[in-house]
Specification:
The complex is a heterodimer of chains A (112) and B (111).
Chain A lengths: L3 E3 L4 E4 L4 E7 L6 E7 L6 E6 L4 E3 L2 E6 L4 E6 L8 E8 L9 E2 L3 E6 L1
Parallel strand pairs in A: 2-11
Antiparallel strand pairs in A: 1-3, 3-8, 4-5, 4-9, 6-7, 7-8, 9-10, 9-11
Chain B lengths: L4 E3 L2 E4 L5 E6 L6 E7 L5 E8 L2 E5 L7 E4 L6 E5 L8 E8 L5 E2 L3 E5 L1
Parallel strand pairs in B: 2-11
Antiparallel strand pairs in B: 1-3, 3-8, 4-5, 4-9, 5-6, 7-8, 9-10, 9-11
Classes of the chains: A mainly beta (112), B mainly beta (111).
């Protein structure tokens, strides 16, 4: 089983619509969870951390379900600029400096 | 906003040649990393570096790879004898402990 698994998409989303997608992780001891955004041939950029209680940052909402070992990202009122690949990222332990494990990404295409 | 700077942005090399990829991390960061991304695949961890030594490395990071912090500002990844399958985007990252900033990457093409 892959450490971090994502639906590769693409999710074709009309502008203004809501899109949501999940990611599953295999290591139940994982401590930290993130969503990164990656534009074509660019570096990953942190979108948001994911907290146990769920958290929101503007149009973006992230949820964590430890029992089922998945995290989710919901994008409301999609903008054309939201078109990107969204990377689910897990850090196995809380130790400072620990590596990140990336999923393969979910591609989102927002269309007018 | 502070940046992680990587040079060159694109490097083409012949199979079997040595390459050195360079990174200037953010100045007050303590942890340094190299990741790679083969075209169309996921970002993969290579190595982390703290307190002037490797703190963790993946199975990808075999004897042909090495890292160095030759002075107070640069952090380098050396690939001793490049193979075709080393062609990838190589990302340097640095962090204070929690959280990372990635550089814009070096695209390595081995021909």
């Amino acid at each position: 089983r892959k450490e971090v698994e994502q639906d590769p998409g693409p999710f074709n989303v009309p502008e203004g619509a809501t899109v949501a997608f999940n990611c599953t992780y295999s290591n139940s001891a994982s401590q930290s969870f993130f969503w990164y955004r990656q534009d074509c041939r660019k570096e990953p950029k942190l979108l948001m951390s994911v907290y146990s209680s769920g958290n929101e940052d503007g149009r973006f909402t992230a949820q964590l379900n430890r029992a089922s070992q998945y995290i989710s990202l919901l994008i409301r009122d999609s903008k054309l600029s939201d078109s990107a690949t969204y990377l689910c990222v897990v850090r196995p332990t809380g130790a400072a400096g620990n590596k990140l494990t990336f999923g393969g990404g979910t591609r989102v295409l927002v269309k007018p | 906003e502070p940046e992680v700077t990587q040079t060159p942005s694109h490097q083409v090399t012949q199979m079997g040649q040595e390459v050195i990829l360079r990174c200037v991390p953010i100045s007050n960061h303590l942890y340094f990393y190299w990741y790679r991304q083969i075209l169309g695949q996921k970002v993969e961890f290579l190595v982390s570096f703290y307190n002037n030594e490797i703190s963790e490395k993946s199975e990808i990071f075999d004897d042909q790879f090495s890292v160095e912090r030759p002075d107070g500002s640069n952090f380098t990844l050396k690939i001793r004898s490049t193979k075709l399958e080393d062609s990838a985007m190589y990302f340097c990252a640095s962090g204070p402990g929690n959280g990372y900033t990635f550089g814009s990457g070096t695209r390595l093409t081995v021909v």
